[in-house]
Write a structure and sequence with these properties.
The protein is mainly alpha-helical. It folds into 2 domains: about 10-210, Up-down Bundle (Alpha-lytic protease prodomain-like); about 220-295, Cation efflux protein, cytoplasmic domain (Alpha-Beta Plaits), CATH 3.30.70. The chain contains 8 helices and 3 strands. The protein has helices at about 10-35, 35-65, 75-105, 115-140, 145-175, 185-210, 220-230, 265-280, and strands at about 235-245, 250-260, 285-295. A 3-stranded mixed β-sheet has the order 1-2-3, covered by helices on one side. The longest helix is centred in the middle third of the chain and has 34 residues, at about 145-175. The chain is elongated and about 90 Å long. The two termini are about 50 Å apart.
Length: about 300
Amino acid sequence: MSRAPEHPGIRVAKLGLAANAALAAAKLAAGVFGHTYALVADAVESCADIVASLVVWGGLAVAARPADADHPYGHGRAEALAAAAVSALLVAAALGIAAEAVREIRTPHRVPAPWTLLVLVGVFAVKWALARRVRALGQATASVAVQADAGHHLSDALTSGAAFVGILVAVVGTRTTRHPAWASADDWAALVASAVIAVNGVRLLRPALHELMDGMPDPAVTGAVERAARGVAGVLDVEKLHVRRHGAALYVDIHVQADRRTPLDAAHVLGGKVKGAVRAAVPAVAGVLVHMEPYERGDGAAADARTFPA
């Protein structure tokens, strides 16, 4: 039996896993030996990224499983669950970084080593490029899990950027004024970065919850579905339209109206044409449930036969 092709999101999750492991080790070492908590906080965020990549990897692997008797709609919701878990990790990491940053601000410590700035430049470049690549893939595949993973990479890049600014201020300020208070600038940078990470986590959580709660997709998608149904000869009106996302797949429930004198077998054929038209117009649609109803004018009178004989 041939294996299903690997989801492209799994490949970028593997890439992110390797990159995060290497960067976390580099940042932790630089933070400890360079006397900067901003880099230590950045390393903690990278460790959270490692867990996030594993979660995304697992979620996409489960989502790729075919439908079975217990899961007739497939396992696509695993993507949304993975995205929600990644978002929760972001918020948890932000809270932990903020708590430790406050403690460091209140505790006198040494000025960060200037060479740690070079480490942050490299980290920022890698994470920014990785975030852009993963985000483009997430948008192309309509995967909330991959998009959440991209958000995690972006948060790590922002944390590194904030750490760079904080360390630069600490080094320059201390050398210029000789005042030890400037040494805590990198801790303030870590505190600011934690707020950015928390906001990003909440932002990424919303689409995941929207999918888990069977929220309607973008109006452009539902509009395309409705136009395709209305364009089928014999369809006189669309009464109801419900669309829900299940991973990368969409499932449509639609009520279409036809002449009340349409024979049952002809109505069945018409429903099949609606299904075909919808799936042709929106390739992401995996299933269409068509409910046929008799058409009535606004005054309640039955419509004249237009397509099928009485």
